[in-house]
Amino acid sequence: MNPAPSPGILAGLIGAGIQASRTPALHEHEGQALGLNYLYRLIDLDQLKLDSSALEQLLSAAEAMGYTGLNITFPCKQAILPLLDDLSAEARGIGAVNTVVLKDGKRIGHNTDCLGFAEGFRRGLSDAPRRQVVQMGAGGAGAAVAHALLAEGVGQLTVFDVELARAQALVDNLNAHFDGSRARVGHDLAHALGEADGLVNTTPMGMAKLPGMPVPKVLLRADLWVAEIVYFPLQTELLREARALGCRTLDGSNMAVFQAVKAFELFSGLQPDAARMIEHFNSMGS
Questions:
Q1: Is 158 known as a binding-site position?
Q2: Left (φ > 0), alpha (ψ -120 to 50) or beta: where does 275 sit?
Q3: Which among 60, 51, 111, 104 has a CA at the least distance from the CA of 81?
Q4: How far apart are alpha carbons 249 and 233 in whole angstroms?
Q5: Whole-structure pTM over 0.90, yes or no?
Q6: Is 77 a catalytic residue?
């Protein structure tokens, strides 16, 4: 008697400049371990010579091809919102989506970035002071991280973004969701970092395709902790400079893994082995 075929999952990642992403390998390896026929594909806007205006077309194509779900990354986490049928409570509160489940003709948006960053923060910086923290970036990932930081007890979060209106919109959202006026728009980076306990980079600055640092090196100091969400490369210039000064640091690996853990669960309905996924992520090198 032939064994029953394993259930199939077809998933993908939509974003720009994502060829170095470890997400496909993470999902497929865990799927194999759980006996699933699991395929995960990259839908790279740069390679396809598209931008976020193609999202509707890409979503429709994914539905037509029987995709179970999609992960969404830079620069699409907010642009995708109007194209979805419904949002999880967390995605609605954050105002950004990184996971879309395609089921029964519906597109349901979720946010697993917030959980992913919070888990990494608890594991790597659980005892770090958090009276005042500076966050660089107010985009889709930034919105999720900011919610996680305030939920993890940051007293005052100062948000900087090249688009002032975007920073203000995030700050207004945060202050509507958390007691008091714990978030504010940053205007003077040197002053804010001078008073801060920690710095979090949620911009794409530091990625292989966008090298550099989101803050001038001279503003770093040894008693500042520094967290990063970029994970390719794992050792960004910001982290390298911070570590050279003796700063406590948190790289982007835990956020990358734990957002994938939750996305895997949403796509498959099965509980993945987080420890196995961390081990596999780390085995892929830096």
A1: no
A2: alpha
A3: 111
A4: 15
A5: yes
A6: yes
Q: What is the mean pLDDT of the chain?
A: 95
Query: What six digits make up the tokens of 273?
Result: 């082995």
Please tell me the distance from the alpha carbon of residue 165 to that of residue 185, in angstroms, as a whole number: 9
- Is 151 annotated in a binding site? The answer is no
The residue among 100, 180, 183, 192 whose CA lies nearest residue 142 is 183
Q: Do residues 259 and 98 lie in contact, with contact meaning Cβ atoms separated by under 8 Å?
A: yes
The answer to the question of whether 98 is labelled as a binding residue is: yes
Amino acid at 146: A
- The dihedrals phi and psi of 21, each to the nearest 5 degrees, come to -60, 140
Q: What is the mean pLDDT of each run of 10 residues along the chain (286 residues)?
A: 67 94 96 97 98 97 98 96 98 97 97 97 97 98 98 98 98 95 98 98 92 97 97 93 98 95 97 96 84
Residue 73 assigned as binding residue:
yes
Give 95-153 pLDDT, tens digit per residue: 999 999 999 999 999 999 999 999 999 999 999 999 999 999 999 999 999 999 999 99
Gap between the Cα atoms of 239 and 213, Å rounded: 9
Tokens of 214: 């989101």
Closest CA to 198 of 161, 254, 233, 156: 156
Which residues lie below 8 Å from residue 203, measured CB to CB, with a gap of 6+?
Answer: 136, 137, 139, 142, 214
Hey, what are 45's tokens? 């806007």
| The one catalytic residue among 77, 103, 106, 262 | 77
Judge whether 51 is annotated as a binding position: no
Structural domains in the chain plus CATH codes = 8-111+255-283 (3.40.50.10860), 114-252 (3.40.50.720)
Q: State the Cα–Cα distance between residues 281 and 234, nearest whole angstrom.
A: 11
